[in-house]
Amino acid sequence: MAAVGGGLREAFEAVAPFAPLACTVLTDDQLVGAAQAVEDLARQVEGMQLAIAREVDNRTDETLGEESLARKLGARKPWGALETVTRTSAKDARERVVEARRLAKLPVLEAAVEAGVLGRAQAAAIMEPLLPATERADTALVEAACENLVDLSKVLPATAVVDAAQAWALVLDPDGVEPVEKAAVEKRFFRLGRAKDGLVKFSGALPVEQAAAIRTVLDAYVNPRAGASVRFAPADDDGATADHGEHADAAPVTEAAANGAAGEGGEAPAAPSGTPMLVATETQPPTDMRTPDQKRADILHAVFTAAARAPETPSMGGAHPTILVVVPKEDFDSGHGAARIDGEDEPISATTAKRIAETGGYQEVQVDSAGKILNLGDTKRCATPWQRKALAVRDKGCIIPGCTMPARWCEVHHIQPDRDGGPTDILNLTLLCWWHHATIDTGPYQLRMGEDGTPEIRWIFGSHATEWVKAIHKPRHALTTAA
């Protein structure tokens, strides 16, 4: 314990001139000085609190038996012992022990907290994005990240350091976004409550790309100028544009601005492994295992994305409400790494960015280390409004058997992927709802284009496969099994 709280005396001496504290009579300079001195003292105390919590936890190891400190104090767990001796709440005692355990995984951060350099709030802001990435990252790089973030925390508030911590997390584990994204898709929901006093409450949670699509439409109605940004490509006859936000990089990089128009973008990754959302057997067609809350969330997203395409929807910067996704070109090409949706705090995976781009199109933008634009590539788009109309006439809606999503709520899908050279023409396009579009590459369904120019579908279970049949929108299953 001698190494903890070494700056406590100095912190007390800095606070002493203000004690007892009479804030109303302090000058501005004195008030600022008092605020800083008190926080320095608080950080010293918090460092000691967590060090004590860690040691209480160590002395309550189950292998100690009757020598366990918690047992001596009549408690079963270390936080119970801490609650007893400190008279803090059970919640706070448990949080201290848990924080101490988490800090032990980041020794540089732990040392900074115990030295009073960081407070609990600052440490938590750094740990939250960093810890998941450390499991697969190089130890030396993790230490470098912590040292950099500790230095930033000395001059920046905790909320500002969060962005830097998230950036470091992507450096430590570029593919770490994808499992988080998959878990988020599984947890999505939208729910309407019962009427009370003339009001109906609703609640929900949406993946980042679904929320971004809805947000752009709401922003367009609330304030048509709110999302206006730099226009890179001139408007086409359908009014679509390729927009780009402010995303600076530390080194020269080519970025693909994946312009998933809110009406057509918003792909999501497949459901997490071990939690199948489409279940099939040898004799039964795939069953949609989404919960009602998840289906309502998907429908809400579909309604808003369809609204983004409507002519009466206010434009933003001369274009329909558009999701702007920025991703380094090498990550876009490989499908590994992370991307950013303009206006959203958390990243999405490069895989999701590719899916958004498949539907909404993209434009390559080359920038230098200072963020100066060096070159604008050609805009590469998906289906035109006229192609969408033709697909609506042909497919009528999502072509997955049993799906009732109408054409106006569907997304355009390349049967032969665009990344594999698949052309963007009617003979290679079809309509899928957001969910089936997100799972078509990993689910049991397979698609192909028939000789007569209409899509065909079958499903696979092990070595069993159905016959290929016409894939026209029909709410009821019409597939039969075949070996």
TrEMBL record:
Q: Which domain of life is it from?
A: Bacteria
Biased amino acid composition, Low complexity: 257-274
Which InterPro entries does the UniProt entry name for this protein?
DUF222, HNH, HNH_nuc
Every HNH nuclease domain range: 386-438
Q: Name one Pfam family in it.
A: DUF222
Q: Where is this region: Disordered?
A: 257-291
> Which protein family is it in?
Belongs to the Rv1128c/1148c/1588c/1702c/1945/3466 family.
- What is the designated name of this protein? HNH nuclease domain-containing protein
